[in-house]
Structure formats: C-alpha cells, structure tokens
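Pasting two entries for a bug report.
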Amino acid sequence: MFKNMSPRALGLTGRQSELIELALTYGFRGMDVDMADLAKRARNTSLAHAIRYLESAKLRIGNYDLPIDWQGDDTAFRSQLTLLEEACQVAAALDARRCVWIVEPASDERPFQENFEFHRQRLAQVADVLAKFDIQLGLGLRSLKSQREGRTYQFICEVDALLTLVKSIPAGNVGVLVDTFHWFLGGGSMSDLSDLDPEKVVGLRLADYARDEDPNEFDESARRLPGAGGVDCQAVVNLFVQKKYDGPATLYVHPSRFRGMTRDGIVQKAAEVMDELWRGAGLSKPKPVAATAGEAAT
C-alpha cells in the first residue's frame, strides 16, 4: 500500500508539474491523474510529451477515472471503445493499472433489472479492452439519499448490490473501489472488507463522517477527515496492511475541509493525516523525496 494524492479530492488546481512537485515534496508515493486529458495531450502532441513530467518524477499512478462515456447507443459505444484503446496505450506507458468508475445510484431511463444487465454487458466489454493492457477496473459506490432523489428508477446504492454486480461481470480484471465514506453509509462492514480479495481492490479512499449527524441529510460535503467518529479509518488501514493490499490509499475528503489554506498547506495537512494513519498501522514514515518535476516546468 502506498500513500497517494488526489488533487481533485484536495481541491487543487495547477500545472501538472506543480502538482507533481507538491506530491513529492510532502512524501506522497503516488498521484491520481486525469487519463482522458493525458490521452488528449498525447493525441495532440505525442505520447512522450504528454507523460514527460510523470515519467521524470517516478511517481506511481494511483487511480484514474474510466476515460470514456460508455453509456451511449451502440454506435457511439463502439467509437468510445476505440478511444479507450488509445487511452490505455498512454496508461500502459505510465504503468497505470488501476482504472475506476463510480456506479450511478439511480436512472431516469432504465428500471433496476434492465439497468443491471446493461451495466453487466457494457462493462464486460470495457473490461476486455482494459485487460489487453493489464489494467483493472474498480467499481465504486454512491450511497447517499440525496444522490438518488428526484430520479425515476433506483439503482445500486448499497455494498451488497455493488459486489453482486462485480461478481456478475465475466472478466477477471473487475474489482472494487473501496471508499470508506460510501462503504459504511452503504451498509458495508469491516467484515465485508475482511472478505475482499486484496487483488480485487483497485483503490482505497479514506474519508470519515460525523457520527452525530443525520446521514439522510448528507451530500458529498459531509466527507470529513479521519477522526469525526463515523468511520474508523485507522482500523481500515490496519486491515488493508494485514491483507497485504499493494495499491493506492488516498485521503478523499471534501475540498471544503481545507478552505482558506494555501496549496502547500493543504498537501502538508493531507500528508500529516496519512502519516498518522501509517504510524498507527505500524508502518515507518517514508522520508520525503526531493521534488524534481518543477525543474522541468516551462
């Protein structure tokens, strides 16, 4: 398991080289990237140009969103699969093997069973393309009532249903994105986490919520730093260490938790939180790596 930084989760913007430098300065070993953007850069310039800062920094790639829209009609879907192959070539060049997608918890188009079968068939085809490049697909959850309100048909919003979908897809490279915020609000437990095959965990996102607040009123802004009382993030990290999970662990709270802080202050705070979890799990604190990506910035 390695400490991973998500610029999006921390509310960070800036040039790629600047974000890499921040990650390196504060001891992160990996970083989430926008693979769709990298693929576009590679298409407009060259692969070497698109990935030059990431290659020079020697950061591991954490997670990246599935870089296509796979839910259009059949003709559009076939075109998107071609784009996916292009993006996979960029991902493979970076040894980026952990793609994720969050299941929408409701639909205005398809009832549950029809939507389930649609997901199963389409994601199996997506997974087949990813498998050519040795890339996993991790499916994540949105569990909040506010994320389903006003929609015609309810869909997957609980851990059991998510795991059923994963198991139904006939592809060995499909697994789970564990987000502690949605995992426990979606009916998941520590026992469920214990039962997971670590090889099927594509990413681990760490966030807490306030134990004394009503989950029915939550939106994504309810995502808090570990210690708020709803999730024992330390116990989750300890478990994943015991399971020998070797993927990214990412602090994934709402950016509003860092309001008023500088970019350096935000990343430093995130690193301190992760360092505390690492120490609690009996892991030695890694020494900061000297930043080099900024030297290459133009």
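Entry 2 (this is the one that rendered wrong in the viewer):
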Amino acid sequence: MNHQRGKQSIVFSNRPYVVGAAAVVGVKEGQGPQRKWFDFILEDDIFGEKTWEKAEGKMLKKAIDLALGDGRVPEKQVDLLLGGDLINQLMIANYAARDLQIPFLGLYGACSTMTESLIMGSVFIDGGYASNAVCAASSHYCTAERQFRMPLEHGNQRPPSAQWTATASGSMVLSGRRSPGRNIRISAATIGRVVDPGIKDVNQMGAAMAPAAVDTLLTHFRDMDRTPSDYDVILSGDLGNIGKNILIDMMEKQGCPVTEQYNDCGALMYTDSQDVHSGGSGCGCSASIFSGRVIKEMRQGTLRRALIMSTGALLSTISSGQGESIPGIAHAVVLEAEGGE
C-alpha cells in the first residue's frame, strides 16, 4: 500500500493505538472550563521546585508517568520518547528524558510540537521500528514569559491580542498492539508547510499562525479526499480567539466552511473572566486538551473521528529582535475510535 497521499499526508497501514494518555495543568488552567478533563492539577505553579523551569520539567515527567500508568505500559517496555517544549535547547524535555532514561528524540515545532511528536511516533510504530512510543509536550507561563517577553516582575501591560501561555503538559502512549479497552488509533497525518503572512507583532500570534493552519487543513482535505463533515470535531492548537476567527473566515472564503465542527484549544482553555485576553497558547495548551478531553471523549463514545492540529509560531528571541516576521506551521493527526470500549 502507498502510505503517501499527495506531498504532505500519510496514511498508516499499521495504525498505532493510543493506549495511554494524560494531561497535567497548572492552577489557572485547573480553574477553567476544561477542568474535569485533566488528570492532575497543580496546587501551585512552582510545583515544589526552586525554579519555574524545574517545575515545568517535573510537570512534563508527571504527564508521561501518568500516561504510562493509564496505558499499563512499563517504562522499560518503551522504545522511544519523542517530545519538546518552548525553552532554549529543549531544556525541559531534555531533563525529563534524562530522568526517564528512554531513547529520546527531542523535537521543536514551537506550539505544534505535540502533533509533530504524534506523527513521528506513528511513523516509527507503523514502520515496525518501535513497539511502544511516548509522545509529549509542555509549556509554562512563567518560563515562556521569562524567555520570550518581559521579566514577570515588570508587570508589563499586555494588549488585547496577546495570548496566555498555558502551564500544561500532555502525553500519549502509542503502541503497535491494542490494550484491553483501548480502541483509539492514529489513522493518518498531514505534515504542515511553513507559511509566513509577514506579521512581526509578537502579540499577534493567532494571526501569524492562522494561515498555516488553513493551508494544512485544505491540504489534508484534498489529500484525503475528505470534507470537514467527515469529522466529529476539528481542533486547532492555540490560535486563540483572534486566530480562530481568522481561520473560520479564511476557510469560508476558500469554499470550505468548518464552523460546525471546528474549535480551538486556545479558545477553549479559559473563560473570559480569567483575563487572558485572546485565549491560551503554548505547547501544553493543545497537548493537554488532546491528551485529556479528546481522548476521554473518544473513549466515552462521544467522538468517533477527530482531526487534531497543533499550530506553531516559529520565532525566537533573536529573530523578533532583528525585525524578522513570524512564520507559522501546523501539523494535523487523525484519531479514530473503532468499535466499543
């Protein structure tokens, strides 16, 4: 069977099972509307550590440990760990991998990292190069603010278009074999292209990423010969409220409306009363909702087929300082539930 569809999409012959999943979030996220879907909510965002970065690393490892427990997969049976974060040189994922001692591939796709890891893990399992793989991503409001914007102590004003980096992590365990009561499989994926709309304002992340998300969606539907109605839900990663509306408008103009099926994790994570302005962002935003709400709803039978897509703003502290624009990217993965749990 030809696995490739078009230039960017893959159909998996030996579709990996999602046998375990877990989502860990911070205090603010645990007070939001997605609270019931999360597996562990921090009592404080420092998580008993001395630094925000150490807290995020502990949070990521907690999500991985919980996902392994959920899937009843011993750590020693995991062939590969794929994951990443937003901090320089993948500091968070690197140190979590050091503690776990599982063969590790660090990935950086900015906030698109979760679906990037799922695609890579699925390729390894589909090709017979791994039996079990862990995919994970994390972010933390305080670590991201310290790196990309202002020191927290400055208390600088945030414009209405700004998004709130979620303190969150998510993990999924993929396997070539089904575990009892686990029938969710990854059937296909679409790898995104870098799309640059020329936006330079670091407080307009949603607008910078939306064109890449639209490009990936249109490519996916064309490659797979599908329409939005073929999915129970289509979820993008962290476009937030502004980016979500831009995507809806752009898809409408392309003659491919997604309004009925579509939502965005950044728009779902918080309520208006939590004062996050345009919604959530960060690797952990989509990772926690995909590993929490989406997987649980599929296990409950509420969803049968889901298209999950993480979006990433490919900037750095150096690029924005040099006046560069903010390229975007988006990767999409198809989750399907087979039969009953």
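Dev reply: Rendering is fixed now. As a check, the viewer should reflect this: Residues 22 and 330 are 22 Å apart (CA to CA).
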